[in-house]
Amino acid sequence: MAFNPADNIQDLQYFGEFGGVNPSISDSSTYTFLSAKTMFDTFEGNADGCYLYSRHSTPSNLYLGEALAAMEGTETANVAASGMGAITPTILQFCQAGDHVVSSRTIYGGTYAFLKNFAPRMDIHTSFVDITKLDVVEAAITKNTKVLYCESVSNPLLEVADIKGLAKIAKKYNLQLLVDNTFSPLNISPAKLGADVVLHSLTKFINGSSDTMGGVVCGTQELIDTLRNVNDGASMLLGASMDSMRAASIMKNLRTLHIRIKQHSKNALYLAERFQKEKIKTVYPGLKSHPGHELFKSMMNEEYGYGGMLTLDVGSLDKANELMELMQERNLGYLAVSLGFYKTLFSAPGSSTSSEIPEQEQAEMGLSDGLIRFSIGLDNDIERTFNMMRECMVEVGVLKA
Ligand SMILES: *Cc1c(COP(=O)(O)O)cnc(C)c1O
């Protein structure tokens, strides 16, 4: 039977303590023991099913982690307080002083800043490359390289990574392939394509209601045990643990992820096709004009579409700002940096989410001033939305009437 991430989530059955249809939330930071010996064993990680302290693990966090592991098809997973709280410990767990990372140059601004500015303090250095060119990726590998890092669909340029091709390189040089799948949950299943570790910011599509931060590392049991080790586990010791209340609320939202992703994808494809016809520079992996279109198609879980993210280039930052302000005024969406909300969100990444990337590098990677990144919402009538957006574009002079 074919792998289907949403079916895998659906097949998980959790009951509450009193037969509730939702699992009970464990509202405690610490747990009692009848025997002191069991407490010691639990601390050492040798007492299955026992809880000690909520930074280590909680029932609610384990439920959510197992559901996300089922979604990504990995052995297990560890949830964290934010996406960065999942990403940074994972990189640090694999890299020691002197080690080297090869990373895509088009990645989330925070991850970029961590690798570029923070990790060097620990003598961990990164080469940033065009991830769509496998020969360039391979050429950047040194004898100290430990990690190959990319996003399935990159932020904000929506470049598509050839995960199978990268996995082959990772195998050849004995590297760990880490893939941030935040932009394409359900759409792409990186572990099924050969990624060793799949990371997410749950803050975005997976939670989907822009009320919570969260992150997850999906991987082997061995990796997750290592990250959680009380003596030298980066997730355990850096302390970005998720709160149980949040884990429970994300778990409930995860149950509707497949419906939401289908609607995000349907709406984004519609708008991308219409705006491209209007001769606006449109980037969306679902368009044949996208250089990664065929690649995405070859990797995707088809029924979930090409995702909810698209970019439009309206020529200049001034025009972009004027247009975004007008669209917000007309209630077409919000001028906000995040993504994956029921409502369309838009921002100009050059001056916001990717502002950590120096201007010169932004230009080199094709991140232009007039670029607007859209996270398309769950709008019921997307043709109506298109007409209203088009009207805004006419008013600010991006399109003719
Ligand atoms: C938001 C985001 C992150 C960071 O997640 P936080 O939850 O904000 O810490 C990482 N990667 C991508 C692609 C993101 O969009």
Automatic annotation (TrEMBL):
Q: Which GO terms describe its cellular component?
A: cytoplasm
For this protein, the record's Pfam families field holds: Cys_Met_Meta_PP
Q: Which residues carry this modification: N6-(pyridoxal phosphate)lysine?
A: 204
Which GO biological process categories is it annotated with?
transsulfuration
Q: Which GO terms describe its molecular function?
A: carbon-sulfur lyase activity; pyridoxal phosphate binding
Co-factor(s): pyridoxal 5'-phosphate
Keyword list, A-Z: Lyase, Pyridoxal phosphate
Q: What family is reported?
A: Belongs to the trans-sulfuration enzymes family.
Q: Specify the protein name.
A: Cystathionine beta-lyase
Q: Which organism is it from?
A: Cochleicola gelatinilyticus
